Every structure is written in C-alpha cells, then in structure tokens.
Amino acid sequence: MNPSGHVAVVTGGGSGLGEATARALAAKGAKVALFDVGLERAQKVAEEIGGIAVKCDVSNGEAGEAAFREVTEKLGVPRILINCAGIAIALKTIGKDGVHSLDAYRKVIEVNLIGTFNMIRLMADGAQHLDPLESGERGVIVNTASVAAYDGQIGQIAYASSKGGVVGMTLPAARDLSRSGIRVCTIAPGIFMTPMLAGLPEDAQKSLGQQVPFPPRLGQPAEYGALAVHIVENEMLNGETIRLDGAIRMAPK
Ligand SMILES: NC(=O)c1ccc[n+]([C@@H]2O[C@H](COP(=O)([O-])OP(=O)(O)OC[C@H]3O[C@@H](n4cnc5c(N)ncnc54)[C@H](O)[C@@H]3O)[C@@H](O)[C@H]2O)c1
After folding, report:
1. Residue 119 is part of which domain span?
2. What is the structure's pLDDT at 156?
3. How far is the centre of ligand 1, averaged over its atoms, from the C-alpha of 13 (Å)?
4. Which one has a higher pLDDT value, 205 or 225?
C-alpha cells in the first residue's frame, strides 16, 4: 500500500532502526505513532516528524491495548505496524560467573518475541474491521528479527532464541491474517549503526564492519527504513523473512 495518509505504529520508534523507519514513513505521508518505553526520546522524534509518542511496554498485554486505544483515538486505526522494539543481552548458557539466569532469558523472550506477537495481535484486531483498499489489502506488518536467528553467536542464546521465534511466526501470522488482507514480513538485519553500537570504540565498530563481505561497513538505519517502507509498498511481499546484512554470516564469536 502507499503509506500516504495511513496510520502507522512503529515500536521502539524512539531510537535506531525504529526511529529511521518512523522518519521514512512520515516522509511518505503516513501518520506515525511511536510506541516506546523511553518516552522522552520518542517524543522528540514524534515532534520532528509531526507524529505522536505513546509510552508502551510492548510485552505487556494491557499496556498494548491502552496504547492502541490511544493511537486510534488520536490518529485512527493503524493499517501499518513496524515492530522494532527489542533488547539484547550477552550471556552464555554456562558462563565464567555461573549458569545463565532464567529471569534474564525470560526477559529477552518477553520483549523480543512475546512483545512482537502482542503488537501483531492487537494491530490485526483493529485492522481486520477497516474497509479494504482497492486490492483487498487492509494492513501490513513488518517485524524485526536478526541474523542471530540463523547464526547465533556464543553468548546469544537468549537473543537468538527470541529472534528465531520471530522468524518462525512470520509465515503462520501471514497465513492467519490472509483472510483479513493483512500481510506480514520480517527483516533480519545484520550489524547496524544504531545507538547501541555507536557506544562501542571506533576500532571495534571498524572491525565489525570489516566482517561484512560487501559493503564492508555497518548498515545505516535509513537502509533498514527504506526496506521497511518497500515492504509496505510492495503488496506481493508476504510471509517472508529478508536478510539485510551485506552477506555477513556471523562466526561463533
Ligand atoms: N542494531 C543492530 O545491529 C541490530 C541487528 C539485528 C537486529 N536488531 C534489532 O532491531 C531492533 C531495533 O534495534 P536498534 O539497534 O534500533 O536498538 P535501539 O536500542 O537503538 O532501539 C530499540 C528501542 O526499543 C525500545 N524498547 C526496548 N524495550 C522495549 C519495550 N519493552 N517496549 C517498548 N519499547 C522498547 C528502546 O527504548 C529503544 O528505543 C531490535 O529488535 C534489535 O534486536 C538490531
């Protein structure tokens, strides 16, 4: 669909890949709502793009319902959902400091996997009642996995499990929602230059970038945003996960 004039929810919209996608959708004329736990940064981005910021922990059922109610009242029922909220930890199953904390594992699954599903179900519940566009399409959802879903490294057991779940839900979600004309795709990014990575020393960033066959650099958030917008626009893309990674295949560590 052409995003112009439609309501788009971008989770994790206050930073990194979500922020870049929110900007790209707003530039295409979408009315954008940023869902984030960090309200201050989301508000700043929202002001700059003429959207709204909504405080929401994506992993919480009631908070999610309240956030969708708020965006519906303020902007209308969302036809577009971009799931970018996520967290990462680095812990081994058995590490130097002992066994992997079960709470830490659960937290990553809650935010990255359950949070993604929570947003999908709530967005689809609203969008299923919208009038279809000319082709019968009612909505489109883009999730964010990671190359760690396929090449999870040492210390990425929780993160890779959560992202593998996001890849795994992509086809059944697309199949479930096909009756309602709602498409679902996932992007699996390689290594992108977001605030998370910008905190690393410059030589660490350079060395990560050089592991990418071509182009030998970190991805720019705008390149993620451009693909997310393309998925929104290209109606034939559905039920698929697209790696956006410069051909990197992560080594064990
Ligand atoms: N940067 C990379 O190299 C990279 C690579 C692969 C996948 N990803 C994935 O892309 C997504 C975005 O990552 P990023 O690099 O932009 O990170 P980021 O830390 O810059 O942004 C993530 C945003 O999500 C928000 N958030 C965290 N937990 C939340 C919750 N429970 N509810 C609502 N919002 C929450 C944060 O406040 C933040 O604004 C994540 O899912 C991440 O796993 C990133």
Report:
1. 7-192+220-241
2. 96
3. 9
4. 225
For strands 94-95 and 98-99, give the pairing: antiparallel
Read off the CATH number of the domain in which 59 is found.
3.40.50.720
207, pLDDT greater than 90? no
* Distance linking the first and last C-alpha atoms of the chain: 40
Return d(Cα 72, Cα 50) in angstroms, integer.
Answer: 16
Pairwise CA distance, residues 95 & 161, whole Å: 18
Q: Which residues contact 59 (CB under 8 A, 6 or more apart)?
A: 110, 111, 114, 115, 118
Residue 11 has which token pair? 């989770």
Residue 70 lies in a domain: yes
* Contact predicate 65/122, CB 8 Å: yes
DSSP 13-42: TTSHHHHHHHHHHHHTT-EEEEEES-HHHH
Query: What local confidence, expressed as pLDDT, does residue 22 receive?
Result: 98
Instruction: Examine residue 252 and state whether it is found in any structural domain, yes or no.
Output: no
Q: Whose CA is nearest to atom 16 of ligand 1?
A: 16
* 206 domain-assigned: no
Q: Which neighbouring-strand residues pair with 180?
A: none
User: What pLDDT is recorded for position 202?
Assistant: 83
| Residues belonging to the active site | 159
Total domains in the chain come to 1
pLDDT at 94: 98
Q: What tokens appear for 141 in the block?
A: 């959802």
- Residue with CA closest to ligand 1 atom 8: 146
Ligand 1: distance of its center to the CA of 36 in Å? 10
